[in-house]
Amino acid sequence: MGVMHEAEPVKKTMIRVREFDVARDLPAIEELERRCQVGLSGDQCPDAAAADNDGADKKKTPKKNSKKQQRGMSLYAEQIGDPFARIRHAPDHVILVAEYGEEEEVVGVIKACTRMVSRGRKKKLSSSRTKQFVKVACLLGLRVSPSHRRHGIATELVRRAESWCTARGAAYATMATTASNAASLALFTGRFAYAPFRRPVFLGHPVHRHRARVPRAHRVLRLPPPLAAAAYAALLPPAAAEFLPADLPALLDHKLTLGTYLAIERGPDPALPPSFALLSVYDATRSLRLRVGGAPTLLRASLAAARALDRHAPWLQVPSVPDIFRPFGTYLLYGVRMSGPEGPALLRSLCRHAHNVARKNPACAVLAADLGPDDPAAAAVPHWPRFSCDEDVWCIKKLGARTANADAGDDSEDDWTTSPPAGLLFVDPREF
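The structure assignment produced for this chain is given below.
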């Protein structure tokens, strides 16, 4: 990482932005995480944007929790462990903190990284490999202390993070939030001119105590990382997907990727096209905790009763749901692909196999996947509606000058921010 110089004075030197120091800042950042619980993609702290609306319009906005809502229930996310966990994989990454007042109290934080990802466009005959990939900045983990809002802190953090990414050659910047987080959207789409870009769907399914049955007609193979990388290179080329990381082989060989699995038919019909399904499983229990809030009392009681019955009469095979009203971990499914007439059934078998892998870890209570809304696999992945939603909003902005974008693999005459979806959307589990 490069050295981040102190920010120029802002608002009579009350705010100062600098790089994060683990020994000095970790307790304050952990406290910010605790006070600013957010939804799964609502990285901005609740009301952060409204809190930074320092312009002529001083109208106060009612507080809105940054959370995913579904049928009266909400999923809250909390980052745990290594503060660099979501950005460490990127060659260039940084955490910036904001200090306020003469006491230099840490009251805000933002994380940023730059990495090469695919644009999902067809390769031109004259284009090189760099044209298939573009350097993109990812801004995430924006938090502002609830007691220090409406002072321009979030605005200054975002501005400095963008400058840091632009200096490292990023052609675009992205951020993720939820459709219900109007304050966050107002900050990024209003003040910083981001444009709503993609809308992935979050699909979650509880992990039961009992083993899920995989049909005997289906065969599940575990692929070693080199073979998995070759399979994805053939089945998921950069032209077919957006945000596919250029370092996908490293992700497949990551210590938290528990395996890449391929499902095929044992006795396929030679008269039909071949069918297959492919996915990878990532252990997010060490870096992410989820919690369900807002559940009706009757639902809580019924789920508790099902767990009690399952404990005392396991032979009944009651599909009891873990205690999701306390913090729990998750396994993330990524690189989900299927093909052929039996593709959906094979994918369901892979999800059952992933369930059987997850049930061995007491910390894992949910299997989850983020997919593009037009991805056919989204209809085949088993999910529970109360654990799923379509509120995610990815926003994008073009950065830098024309020459810098050309060096980053971007054609200035072909603006990605206005391009139609490629069909497949790759969600990197390291940044979840």
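Interim note for the steering committee: The two ends are 22 Å apart (CA to CA). The CA atoms of residues 49 and 141 lie 14 Å apart.
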